Amino acid sequence: MDKETLAIVLGVAIGFITRLLLLQSDYRQYPTYPHGQVIHLALGLIASALGAVAIPALLKPDYTAVTFLSLAAQQFRDVRNMERQALQKLDENELVPRGFSYIEGIAMVFEGRNYIVILASLFTSATVMFGNWIFGLIVGVVVIFLSSFLKSGKTMGQIGFVYEVPLRVKGPSLYADDIYLMNIGLEDNLKRIMENGVGIIIKPRNASSRITISNLGQRQAILHDVSSILGVFRDSGEPALTPLAKLDLKDGRLGLVLLPQERNIPRLIKIIENVPVLESAVRKPNQFDEKK
Amino acid sequence: MKEKILAIITTKRDLVGGGSPIFVTENEKELIERAFLLEKILDAMVHKLNESTYIIVKH
After folding, report:
1. What residues of A are in the B interface, CB distance below 8 Å?
2. Of A238, A261, A268, B26, which has the fewest beta carbons less than 10 angstroms from its beta carbon?
């Protein structure tokens, strides 16, 4: 086999394996079925082919091949659109929706993963071209290993303390400890919320996390994750049974009322601590520099 | 602005007014029954303003 073929084959293989490892179905339940996964694997294969071909084509020399890459970027931007639209449509039928911020985050990850695949196969094929296939294989394995580090961001547990508090009722008003949540008109609904509801408070660790926690998209993501893992005591036509999060404006604590079907408090707290911090909710006021 | 008052249920007709449908009931028991029914029919939240008045709000 000549060097170019070897570089391309190894590049495609490494890229595809990277995509395979980045594609995981967890509690977010998407994509779960084979057809959904095939879509992403096929796109991953195309991405790895693009990355693998670039360096051999440049060395050939066939410089116009690089324009392919810009075509690819366009193609993968469409992936993001496709994911966003699909998830937004599905969100309309959720009892506790994900919210726009969460969807945007997921869509962005799908696009980003394709670029990671391109880079993985690009590095691998470049190493094969400039070195030999053994080096290529080593670089490939290292890149696969590195790509799993890019996968995760921060979680709620890192920016806030999560603990259970009792729910309280004063007249028609519902409180989580001392944080006002909502006005519930019917006694019957109040009784059901007191029976099934769990009060939780998230206390921010610092000024930056206080802003992140107050983001509406971030709050919706917490409510959705808890509801999708522990189930939700809710139905259409039951508007009062809504998991809800409200802020204490004085000290930035977030009060939540959750209605899990499975009442397992330690697990519930673990779930909240593992909710990803959405990129759109991250603010870093600590990094403001007055001198600039 | 998404929130909208869909209906008002009251036992004191002269205390409420405006553009929403107003349901007047005889006593508090009837008031709660009416509020419960309308909550299910309209899929909107019941809020208690005071002892004599409930509103149905679409959130």
Report:
1. 171-172, 183-189, 236-237, 239-240, 242
2. B26
